[in-house]
Amino acid sequence: MSNKMGMPKPMKSIDTTSAIKAACAIVAVGIVAGATLVVGMDHIMKRIFVGEDWPAEEWSNDDWAEEELEG
């Protein structure tokens, strides 16, 4: 490739500032999407599970760990 005077054009290269800007934009979009997903799922789960009767069960009990696994 050459310009009107017959001299070759310099090759364009991606400079680091534009690469950093693109990386920051990608990270920002990921953070916004992740936060939206977390807030949305929290809202949905609260709407589904609030007011339901849960069994009065001790969840910290480790009795299941002592059972034999069928093999």
Separation of termini? 72 Å
Q: Class by helix and strand content?
A: mainly alpha
**Number of beta strands:** 0
Average residue pLDDT: 76
Q: Describe the biggest sheet?
A: none
**Estimated radius of gyration:** 29 Å
- Count of DSSP H/I helices: 1
Helix content: 40-55%
Tertiary shape: elongated
* Strand content bin: under 5%
Order of helices and strands: H
Low-confidence stretches: none
List strands and helices in order, with pairings:
Layout: H1 16-49
What does this structure look like?
With 71 residues, this protein is mainly alpha-helical. Helix content is 48%, strand content 0%. The protein has 1 helix and no strands. The chain has one helix at 16-49. It is elongated. The relative contact order is 0.05. The mean pLDDT is 76.
Task: Summarize this entry quickly.
The chain has 71 residues and is an all-alpha fold. 48% of the residues lie in helices and 0% in strands.
